[in-house]
Amino acid sequence: MRQIDVIYCDDIREEVGNKVSYMGVYAGELRVPDAPVLLGKLCIAVRMHTPISQPFETLEVRVVKERAGEEVAEVLATGVIEQPADFAVDDDAATRILAQLHFMLQPFQIDESFEIRVKVKTESEELVSSALRIRVDG
């Protein structure tokens, strides 16, 4: 079974030793007191998993704005990413393949309440992430 995991946060930092740190991780909601507001950046870490027997042939990642469950705007899109011709799994114990992308939306404008979500179109299906609710209190 394929799946997508997404982390929405303030910053993504590459660390020594092939590590990544996520700073200021949002737990489902980002609240601001008034709008409009301009955030310095909003970061999105996307991890796509698939069984080793079903490698991704193509991926197209889109970040979209939604209101009331309806897509209203595309924030960014990668275009089609094809699996490299020389792709091979060199670990006999591996059971899953992981593809990972990081996005930094810099700056990030908030004019009203909405949700932001990641959608990944593969060669055979669309994977849809959980949303980050962005709420303007004022």
If you had to describe this structure to a student in words, what would you say it looks like?
The protein is an all-beta fold and 138 residues long. The protein has one domain (3-136): Immunoglobulin-like (Sandwich). The chain has no helices and twelve strands. 14% of the residues are buried.
In short:
By secondary structure, this protein is mainly beta. The chain has no helices and twelve strands.
Order of helices and strands: EEEEEEEEEEEE
> Measured on Cα atoms, how large is the radius of gyration?
16 Å
Number of helices: 0
Q: Might you state the CATH topology name?
A: Immunoglobulin-like
- Shape assignment: globular
| C-alpha end-to-end distance | 42 Å
* Number of discrete domains: 1
Strand tally, please? Answer: 12
Q: What CATH architecture label applies? A: Sandwich
**CATH class categorisation:** Mainly Beta
Return residue spans where pLDDT drops below 50 for at least 5 consecutive residues: none
* Overall helicity: under 10%
Main attributes of the structure:
single chain; 138 residues; mainly beta; Immunoglobulin-like; six-stranded mixed beta sheet; four-stranded antiparallel beta sheet
Write the layout of secondary structure elements.
Elements: E1 3-15, E2 19-25, E3 29-32, E4 37-39, E5 42-51, E6 58-67, E7 70-82, E8 96-105, E9 108-110, E10 114-122, E11 126-128, E12 132-136
Parallel strand pairs: 3-12
Antiparallel strand pairs: 1-2, 1-5, 4-9, 5-8, 6-7, 6-10, 10-11, 10-12
